[in-house]
Design brief:
about 450 residues, alpha+beta, four-stranded mixed beta sheet, three-stranded mixed beta sheet, 18 helices, 12 strands, about 45% helix
Length: about 450
């Protein structure tokens, strides 16, 4: 590199550094003339204030005072009270709280102390005539490990106890439970069907070489059904059971994630482009060559033709988008949807397609665990378009309600939590939303095989 070029680069770096310093000094002068402690309220718990104060200290040099105080309160509401805000707000809070929220959750888990006493330990305490309060040392070590183990799958299943830790019953349904269990690792929940010498059929539910339950019946179909029933009943004694109580539509007000119908002026296609455009051309004046030629031919203005039956205004042009024939309007296109085969690319819409596409993109990037509920005001064709857009982004949707009474609603499903993480959210973090969505039943522990 030549000397002149090196000097130019060096001068550019100095200029850039000077600009950064100037920007930082501007922020410094504008944002440090206020005291953070002045914003603490007398009724605010220490834990809430500490979290809010850390957030404000972290961004005091970058965000104006009024905005920062507001964002800090929103952060505390989200983290401690599990409130939900618009997607853009949630995304910004996630970015600004990076590091702060993780440290808080880690400290919260370290402070957690709960007492779990197994049957054998309870019997030992009874013999020693000791109460649960005298077991402080055990509660801080072995019992804490026992509690944590309930919500952490075992990587290598070797015993029945390992299998019970990995199995979480879902809605008392064998297929759902099997599907989620088989996602955990190499060990799979399977059935082994054997025909006995007496003509009966034996079905064993197994994990690897471990037999969990078995059943015998005269027919294979009934034997499989019986094995599933025995499996569900037996696992209730050893495993946690998660039951879905409410669907997202029933909780849309609590979730605060209802998506309203936003319209645009005119009609658009599946990409948000206008489907028709009128060309408004100015009428030609006397300076126009065509105007002069028409005058020489005897035209004095008005309609064309010998009897003045021709057109006056310019011909209107309509842009054709889609594969339908000429002359097919949007109403006729909508009628084709009655067949059930909806092609979003071949129809016009009055909603802001680009807005909903951006919303879905932000929803996917943010990894939100709650569902996004769309208003019942969307038409069948619009729901089909939204569903198609979600599929292209690898998002899942579901519909609730009926078209007949106008209660049909589209729901964009959030990130699905694994069963063990769901247990952690409900039983440890006491998440308000998940506690309303699900009911958790602990192992009953009353099986004769215990």
């Amino acid at each position: 590199m030549s000397k002149r070029k090196r000097e130019t680069c060096h001068d550019g770096q100095e200029t850039k550094t000077a600009k950064n310093v100037a920007i930082k000094s501007t922020h410094y002068d504008a944002n440090t003339n206020w005291n953070i402690d002045d914003y603490r309220t007398p009724y605010e718990p220490d834990e809430h204030w500490e979290l809010r104060r850390l957030f404000m200290e972290r961004h005091q040099l970058q965000i104006p005072e009024d905005e920062l105080v507001c964002m800090a309160q929103v952060f505390v509401n989200v983290e401690l009270l599990h409130c939900r805000y618009p997607l853009e707000t949630m995304q910004r809070i996630k970015e600004l709280s990076e590091g702060i929220a993780n440290e808080y959750r880690a400290s919260r888990r370290n402070k957690l102390q709960r007492t779990f006493v197994s049957a054998s330990n309870a019997a030992a305490l009874k013999v020693q005539r000791k109460g649960a309060s005298e077991q402080e040392t055990y509660r801080g070590s072995d019992l804490r490990t026992e509690y944590s183990r309930k919500f952490k799958p075992v990587a290598n299943i070797q015993t029945l106890e390992d299998a019970y830790n990995n199995i979480v019953l879902l809605n008392n349904d064998y297929e759902q439970t099997k599907m989620e269990f088989n996602k955990l690792g190499d060990s799979k929940l399977t059935m082994r069907i054997t025909k006995n010498s007496d003509g009966t059929i034996s079905v064993a539910v197994m994990i690897g070489e471990l037999t969990l339950v078995s059943a015998v019946n005269n027919g294979e179909k009934m034997a499989v059904k019986t094995a599933k029933q025995v499996f569900l009943k037996t696992m209730q004694s050893h495993c946690y059971h998660i039951i879905r109580q409410q669907n997202p539509v029933e909780l849309q007000e609590t979730l605060g994630s209802k998506m309203e119908r936003k319209v645009v002026e005119g009609m658009v296609d599946h990409s948000g482009r206008p489907t028709s455009t009128e060309l408004k051309e100015k009428k030609i004046d006397e300076s126009n060559l065509g105007f002069k030629l028409l005058q020489k031919l005897g035209w004095s203005g008005g309609s064309l033709g010998a009897k003045n039956e021709g057109i006056v205004d310019p011909i209107k042009c309509q842009i054709k988008i889609g594969r339908k024939g000429l002359g097919v309007n949007s109403t006729e296109q909508s009628d084709t949807m009655k067949t059930g085969k909806i092609n979003p690319r071949d129809n016009s819409y009055s909603i802001d397609v680009n807005f909903y596409r951006r919303t879905m993109q932000n929803f996917r990037k943010s990894g939100i665990e709650y569902d996004l509920v769309f208003s019942s005001e969307f038409t069948k064709e619009e729901r089909a378009l939204l569903h198609s857009m979600a599929q292209t982004m690898q998002l899942k949707t579901r519909s609730y309600g009926k078209d007949e009474n106008g209660t049909r609603q589209l729901v964009l499903l959030g990130r699905k939590l694994p069963p063990h993480e769901l247990l952690d959210r409900i039983l440890i973090e006491k998440d308000t939303i998940f506690c309303q969505l699900y009911t958790v039943k602990p192992p009953t522990g009353n099986n004769e095989s215990d």
